[in-house]
Amino acid sequence: xxxxPPAKEPMFVRSLxxxxxxxxxxxxxxxSLPSVHERIRDRQVRFLDSLGLELEEVKVFRKGxxxxxxxxxxxxxxxxxxxxxxxxxxxxxxxxxxxxPENRGSQPGFVQRLVGQVVSLxxxxxxxxxxxxxxxxxxxxxxxxVTIQYSFTNWRSSAKTRAxxxxxxxxxxxxxxxxxxxxxxxxxxPFILLPGVQLEFAVCYRVMGAEYWDNNDGxxxxxxxxxxxxxxxxxxxxxMVHYT
Length: 244
Description:
GO molecular function, one term: protein phosphatase 1 binding
Organism: Hucho hucho
Order of helices and strands: HHEHEEEEEEEEEH
Low-confidence stretches: none
Protein name: Protein phosphatase 1 regulatory subunit 3D
Pfam family, one: CBM_21
InterPro entries: CBM21_dom, CBM21_dom_sf, PP1_regulatory_subunit_3
Shape: elongated
């Protein structure tokens, strides 16, 4: 009769190392650290302007009340609509046009005018970035200040900007006295650019405790806003920003 194999005795192996037995590492996330989804959910986005003021404003309209869209925004919406309809895109671009000679420095009698009133507008250039101009003043002293007082509201409100020195013009005795050239820039906000809007300004020159003005012989320097139509070529439409 075959005998069953003898039972194996358990074998005990003693480790020669004195290190404690290893245990599996279990990583626990700190309770104070939120998950990625929680951090995204709790994040708030705020839109601020350059002064740190809120750009977002909640406006509740009453029944029958229509929102007023700014003209420069409405023109972009019309532009996008025309592009989507496949029609040729036409842009109405506003611009300021002086109601006086743009280059007064090249007009006859300019030096005599400068000598008579000590300060005189020299030149004005209108562009999309604003209005840039130069002023000439007699060099009566080293310390001097030239400012431009301007208004878009027929002087119901006004603002002032300071001109910066550019160069000194040296003339012969037969041509006239020495003068300094100052340059100024008048910013034009987009919402101001409406046909019929008028910009007025005058030049003030302060030197040696005295004050001299050039206000175009009491009429102020005036620029009126006009607009012209520009047809955009088809090949340029794809490079323009679409507003939807």
